[in-house]
Amino acid sequence: MNGEPLVRWDWLFAHLGPIADRVVQHLYLAAIAVGIGFAISFALAALSIRRRRLFPLISILATGVYAIPSFALFAALVAVTGLSVLTAEIPLVLYTLVLFVPNIVAGFDAVPGDVLEAADGLGYTAGERWWRVELPLAVPLVVAGLRLATVSTIGLVTVSAILGNSLGGLGYYILDGYHRHFTTEILVGGLLSIGLAALADLGCVLLQRLLTPWAAARVAVR
Amino acid sequence: MTKRYDAASGMPGAVNDLSFEVPAGAICVLVGPSGCGKTTSLKMVNRLIEPSAGQILLDGVDVGTENVTALRRRIGYVIQQVGLFPHLTVERNVAVVPGLVGWSRERQRTRSRDLLSMVGLDPDRYADRYPSQLSGGERQRVGVARALAADPSLMLMDEPFAAVDPIVRERLQDEFLRVQRQLAKTILFVTHDVDEAIKMGDLIAVLEDGGRLAQFGPPDEILARPASEFVARFVGQDRGLKRLSLRTVADLKVEPIGHADELPAFLSSTTLRDALSILLAADTRGGIALDEAGLPRGLVTVDAIASALADDAQIDTART
Amino acid sequence: MDVFSATAQWLADPMHWQSANGIPARLFEHVALSAVSLILSGCVAMPLGLWIGHTGRFSWLVVSSANAWRALPSFALIGLLVPFTTVIDPNLGFTLYPTLIAMIVLAGPPVLVNAYQGVAGVDRDLVEAARAMGMRERQVLLGLEIPIALPVLATGVRSAAVQVIATATLGATFGFGGLGRFIVLGDANQDNGELFGGVVLVAALALLTQALFTLLERRLVSPGLATHTAG
């Protein structure tokens, strides 16, 4: 842009510190949202499993919230909660719900009925059965939900840059670079955000492999 | 050590006035058409279903009075689809109940490996595999091993061999009977297959619709003297032949052989039913019965087999 | 005055419904460009997904595009496009093109993935039976696989539509028009009425789109298929 070289390396190396801070901020905002979102979603999922009739209602609400563009939600909350981490976190948490809840519910639904019956018959108490049989077997789908939510949240953190210079993680560089017609800044913000998201995706895949050693042993001997 | 059964279930008409007693070390088979309440009856023993009336006494103690979890941990339970835990290795699956009652890891491992050998699975090959890597027959064996792990006094088995093909099923039945000869557990076995009932059972309880007991007794009695039209129809018109499969050539009285032309020879363990079948196909005057050592004992004929059914006096030794 | 009355007043003001930058104009801009993006993207993604699902070839394309789409924040995508689109046209490349291209790109994977999954998910026995009856490949695809796959296809289009509307809204930060513009201007001018007016309009459009496509989904599915569309 404007006849400048594509990347201004000198700027980049001069700003490594602030960039690193932004990366940390980015991860921090994402982690809080995913953590709180997971906790809330787990509770909602447990509720949905116990009261099946609530599940469609919860689904519709979550889907509805998800449909509303993040930009609008962030902007709307500014008036209510001001320019703060809370303002950024509320939409981020809400957006994780529609990704977590169906996956958690599906995870528990996927536990085969004969396994549950065998567990009861062998003498597991209800608590032991939940903790040692249902939960481990629900993990694959739950982690799939975690993967979606984490990657999506890292993407959405960039949007929080509209809330002001103090927020937004790497999104700050994207927006600032845009307004200043400064390509290097845009590239830093954009590419690093994508990089973070891709790394998180990979991390979740590895986590899943770690937590479900039995899924890797897929050779069925006939 | 006995188990007495005296129950009615909560579901209307599912089980009604079922009452019988099973001595220690015996296999009692609950058999009947679909929906007759046999599975319901079984599940009332470990209280997966609670009876609405009556008692089930295990060694004289009502199972309803005991803590249900403790009860289940001392009863072995095997179901048709097995229900092996996909996320645990075979060794860990077998060790589930010992783990629940607090055995040391060492003891669990040893016990697990011993049981796998007992059911015919080489522990070195199978212990660290996951259920998804096993065939249907192998899974069933692990299921049985798992039920035996904590050395229960009573085993409940709900159509355990129904989900595999007939060849595998026969092998599993034979191996199970072999294990039972060693362990002498008290077993309640549910099946809808009357042939399996006859083969596996020391005692058979025939149930009809509504969970009513139609007849209770040893297999031979059920076949020889069905108590009702229903039982007669259920065991089949060929019950005479079925009775023949309960006895072997060793039980038959023999005649002198005479000249030994090309006559078929029968091991002492050959069932009368198979012997009859071979004789009818061979169309000879008889066959040569061999003793345990393989030496000829004498001639057996179709007539001898036929009278074995009609007249109990033909039987040399009483079948145990 | 408080937020609600300010918003209500802003929305009620007839001036806002007339001018060239008024609500209808922005709405039209938003919807028209969204529709164009969806159609352009869909015309490529849908047939491609159907073909990959039917033949089973190049399925890696679907998987990697799904992964890439998930990991690609729209905010970053629009921003990253700017340096390149401004080379094409300094003016439109700074406002219209980046967002528009992002909209087209991001609409693709939901349609592609769902088209693939929908067709690939049809019971293989049915497909084999159809072939055995003498149906040609094209007939199998059109007459059997697509009708059965319709619910899944429709969900994909719905996801894409919601995605496109959201991206267009976001684009306002980068100079795009559409309803998002009101939010940006309201923020710049400290005009709560305008800001929240924009928020209300955007939310309404998004929810309406979601509802409309869901309805369409229900209509398109044959009564013979006992389906519950996965949200």
Polypeptide structure, described:
The complex is a heterotrimer of chains A (222), B (320) and C (231). By secondary structure, chain A is an all-alpha fold. The model of chain A has no long low-confidence stretch (mean pLDDT 86). With 320 residues, chain B is an alpha/beta fold. Chain B is globular. Chain C has 231 residues and is mainly alpha-helical. Chain C has one domain: MetI-like fold, CATH 1.10.3720.10. The C terminus of chain C is likely disordered. The interface between A and B is medium-sized, with 25 and 34 residues.
Corresponding CATH superfamily of chain A: MetI-like
**Major sheet summary line of chain B:** 6 strands, mixed
Number of strands of chain A: 0
CATH C-level label of chain A = Mainly Alpha
Strand content of chain B: 15-25%
How would you classify the helix and strand content of chain B by structural class? alpha/beta
Q: What multimeric state do the chains show? A: heterotrimer
Report the count of strand segments of chain B: 13
Shape of chain B: globular
Tell me which protein chains meet in the greatest interface and how many residues each side has: A-C, 47 and 41 residues
Q: What is the CA-based Rg of chain A, rounded? A: 21 Å
What is the gist of this entry?
The complex is a heterotrimer of chains A (222), B (320) and C (231). Chain B contains 14 helices and 13 strands.
List keywords for this structure.
heterotrimer; A: 222 residues; mainly alpha; MetI-like fold; 80% helix; 0% strand; C: 231 residues; 10 helices; 79% helix; disordered C terminus
Layout of secondary structure:
The complex is a heterotrimer of chains A (222), B (320) and C (231).
Chain A: H1 9-14, H2 16-50, H3 54-67, H4 70-81, H5 85-109, H6 113-122, H7 126-159, H8 171-179, H9 183-211, H10 213-216
Chain B: E1 3-9, E2 18-22, E3 27-31, H1 38-45, E4 51-58, E5 61-62, H2 68-73, E6 75-78, H3 90-94, H4 96-100, H5 105-118, H6 123-126, H7 136-148, E7 154-158, H8 166-183, E8 186-191, H9 194-200, E9 203-208, E10 212-217, H10 219-224, H11 229-235, H12 239-244, E11 265-266, H13 272-282, E12 287-290, E13 296-300, H14 302-310
Parallel strand pairs in B: 3-8, 3-9, 6-7, 7-8, 11-12
Antiparallel strand pairs in B: 1-2, 1-4, 4-5, 9-10, 12-13
Helix pairs in contact in B: 5-7
Chain C: H1 3-12, H2 23-55, H3 59-71, H4 74-88, H5 92-95, H6 97-120, H7 124-133, H8 137-171, H9 180-188, H10 192-220
Helix pairs in contact in C: 1-10, 2-6, 2-8, 3-6, 4-6, 6-8, 7-8, 8-10, 9-10
